[in-house]
Amino acid sequence: MWKQITRHLSFYVLIAIIAGILLGHYAPATAVKMEIIGKSFVDIIKLFIAPIIFLTIVQGISGMGSLKKVGRIGIKSLVYFEVVTTLALAIGIAVALLIKPGLLDKTGLPLQDASKYTGARSSHFSWIGFFQSNITLQVLLAAIVTGIVLNYSRYRPAALRLFQTLSRYVFGALKYVMYLAPLGAFGGMAFTIGKFGLSTLMPLMKLMACVYLTMFLFVALVLGGIMRYFKFNIWSFLSSIKEELLLVLGTSSSEAALPSIMRKLEDMGCSKPVVGLVIPTGYSFNLDGTSIYLSMSVIFLAQLYNVHLSTTELIMILLLLMLTSKGAAGVTGSGFIVLASTLTAVHRIPLEGLAFLLGIDKFMSEARAITNIIGNGVATLVIAKTEKEFVSME
């Protein structure tokens, strides 16, 4: 049994996370210097994201043969994303209203400098800016165009063989890079604990517990219910992607696990075109964890400043976040910019309240990232099943 456990990468990632927490708590000055290790690992993984997305989608579209089906998968994915993320937003608002995490004395809360976000009070969401700052969407568009063009080209068979060969090399190289995952998890966790300290959690523990509980319920009940309807089991799925979840926990980045979860979903039985279209699009439009966090944060700040929100205002916040939450991908700190633009539109909640959230944001980013990656995995399985592009590997 011990031999079996030590053969799995997830075992070493878990050990690395524990070591990072201990170093961050007992030697914070040294732990902060470990940031370069975690950051370097994530940067290396990011180098693989663009070629993997491009190669997967081009092979999928040009190999599928039916452009009509490609369009149907894309539209179905976007509709699914909008419905589920709106549900996540609504659940976040409902739980925050029920548990009331913002009923605290704000004089005792840790205060951070939020000037770079509050200074953006006039910023508005821009689809052009969103696209320009999102490399994943740019690669996705380029791959779709290339795949469509190849469908009409007489060089299609030769091109497909070339892309298949390139894919083998890219995934082969990625396999070796993933052996560094424990180092990445160690560096990311050590830096987080060393920089922000476990003590900063205590004053806002109620909000943190509320966010983590809501995300757990969302995964277990909402995503679990969707999975059950389509004859899948959420717990089996989570068990099969435990390495990716631990990697996201250690690095606080769902991007770190993007290439490996794409490969794993294919191994589970999802077709290459569905994985290639749904996962990259989902990383921009299907951010379930981020949606829950954003909606709960708005209600938390309203409660913190004793601002009573009417039903009409709550509906307006929900509608605003349905749009602005789609811009919370791809750029570090963009979640706070989204919050700033939402609070500016509401007018009644002080924008300076963001300063209270900055201290614990890093500790909640893990929950957001994990929920996001689970949500995108579930979306891929569901779309594949409805399109009859899923073959059970059991």
From TrEMBL:
UniProt GO MF annotations: fumarate transmembrane transporter activity; malate:proton symporter activity; succinate transmembrane transporter activity
Localization per record: Cell membrane
Record field: transmembrane: 9-27, 47-67, 79-99, 135-155, 176-198, 204-230, 314-339
Main location: membrane
Protein topology in the membrane: Multi-pass membrane protein
GO biological process terms on file: L-aspartate transmembrane transport
Domain of life: Bacteria
The keyword Iron belongs to this UniProt entry's keyword annotation: no
Isomerase listed as a keyword: no
Gene3D superfamilies: Sodium:dicarboxylate symporter (1.10.3860.10)
Keywords, sorted A to Z: Cell membrane, Membrane, Symport, Transmembrane, Transmembrane helix, Transport
GO cellular component: plasma membrane
PANTHER family: AEROBIC C4-DICARBOXYLATE TRANSPORT PROTEIN, PROTON/GLUTAMATE-ASPARTATE SYMPORTER
Name under which the protein is recorded: Aerobic C4-dicarboxylate transport protein
Species this chain originates from: Hydrobacter penzbergensis
